[in-house]
Amino acid sequence: MFFAHEFDAEITNQIGDQRLGTCIVLPEEIAARLPFDTYTRLRVDAEIGGVDHQGAWVPYGGRYKMMLSRRLLARIGKGLGDRVRVSFNVADQDAMPLPRELVDALEDDMFCEAWEAMPIGQRRSWCYRIDKLKSQDARLRNVDKLTAELLG
What we know:
It holds the Pfam family DUF1905. This is Bacteriocin resistance YdeI/OmpD-like protein. This protein is an alpha+beta fold. It folds into two domains: 5-90, AF2212/PG0164-like (Elongation Factor Tu (Ef-tu), domain 3), CATH 2.40.30.100; 100-151, no CATH class. It is 36% helix and 32% strand. Strands 1-7-4-5-6-3-2 form a seven-stranded antiparallel beta sheet. Helix 5 (120-131) runs antiparallel to helix 6. The termini are far apart.
C-alpha cells in the first residue's frame, strides 16, 4: 500500500517534561502539511512497525501524538525507547464503520432518527464500544443499552 506520510519515531511516554501514555510524536514538518486547522483530531489509516493500525493524531503540548496500546506494542515487538517506522494516510474523517448488530438496529426508523440526531463523536464512540467486544451477546447487550438510551 502507498502511504503519503512516512517517518521513524521513538516510542515514548512524554513530550518535553510532560508525562503521558505510551505514544509516538508527529514530526513538526509533517504536521505543518496536515489539515489540523480543519480537524483538531486527525484520524489516520496507518502502519506502525509493519502492523496495520487505525488511530488519530491528537494535540498535546503544541505537538501531535498518537497513542499506542499495549496490544499493538506486543504485536510489533517494541516498547518504550524503541524506534519504529510509521506510515500513514489521512482517513476519511466522516467514515464510521458500523458493527453488524448496529446496522440491524438501524432498520428501525425511530432508532435511526435518534441515531442520526446524535453528534458524530458519540456515534463513533458507540461504534467503537460495540465493535471491540468479542462476545455476540455482549455486543447485542450494548446495542440494547444504546436503544434504551436513545428511545428511553
